[in-house]
Amino acid sequence: MVEPNQSSIYGETLDSLKEKLTEAGHPAFRAGQIMQWLYKKRVARWDEMTNLAKPLRLWLDQRFSLLPSKILLDKKASDVTDKLLIEYGDRSLVETVVIRAPMVGVGQENARKTICVSSQVGCAYACRFCASGLAGFKRDLDTSEIVSQLIHASRALELEDPHAAKEDQVAFDNIVMMGMGEPLSNYENVVPALKILNSEWGMHFGARRITLSTSGLVPQIRQLADEPLNLRLAISLHGATNEVRRKIMPINRKYPLEELIPAIEYFRERNGRMVTLEYILIEGINDSIEQAEELSKIARQLHAHVNCIPYNTVQGLQWKRPSLNRQRVFVNILKRQSVSVTIRREKGHDIDAACGQLRLKEEQERGNYVHVR
Ligand code: SAH
Fold this sequence. Notes:
Number of helices: 13
Helix content: 25-40%
Distance between the termini: 39 Å
Number of strands: 14
Low-confidence stretches: 348-353, 364-373
Shape: elongated
Mean pLDDT: 87
Structural class: alpha/beta
Order of helices and strands: EHHHEEEEEEHEHEHEHEHHHEHEHEH
Bound molecules: S-adenosyl-L-homocysteine
């Protein structure tokens, strides 16, 4: 039972847990053991923490919740994507997606797995092409709700294949903050969560394997650049001029390209990593030759990689993806300018795996759907 005064253990750091243990008269060193059970063994119950004395387990049970969220739906799309729909105590819904990248000559069970994590319930940024913005913003996720999505994901993969996790490692290879929400507008919960995932006592997951994607919040990009976290950064660009970007991303009015580009440059200088520019191809909106040329200039200036993503149709929105030929023409212009570019292979179209789509459906069925535009 989750008592109202309980907080989730997944929001604790080693130090904060030590402090709480000491205050309650338990030895501080127990904190390290508890973290081991949480992040290395990923246990579901306190009584599985067998090296802890019973009174301590009892105290933990009263003081903290372990996994207050539940998996509402574990939807398997194909052999490349599954989607977990997680419900929190307040009935908020959040999506966590498992994406498997097939590898040539290797069985699907060995494919690299990427977990796409949500940072908010809904989203306030209202990008015109995105399902998350359609239902508006509900709330920020707290640190523990972000961290526990990764625990759920690893456990789901381990359930499917008991050998999925090696030794003390989790059962996936990459984390992308590309699920629902704008991670940088929930900086105070997202960054601590990433620190827990990255820390040695926590998940010990390499920062090089974590990518944060943002619609372009300039002050927070600069703040993130100054963090001791060596994350990868992806920018949802989707328009190579203010005129085009403004039409589909309202955030561009607040932070136009002349502010965004220097912030990305600053991040790259501080962080030393190549930044990725994400560019959804939408027919007749941003797929012109001129946009490809402008995009090439930006990418070259920033030494950035460009990831073109053919638009994923969202029910209720009128946008379309360009023809394969048009996609090729666009990408070839970038290649000719020696820009490092990839075009994303489609994953999860059949389960509505793009940002916010699954939740939107569930909310519509529940009757909670509010159209804000
Ligand atoms: N708010 C953050 C992260 C969430 S969106 C951001 O904007 O980056 C994650 C990625 O999914 C973004 O690049 C977003 O533009 C993209 N996306 C959203 N809707 C999509 C759709 N219908 N088809 C393809 N990509 C989509």
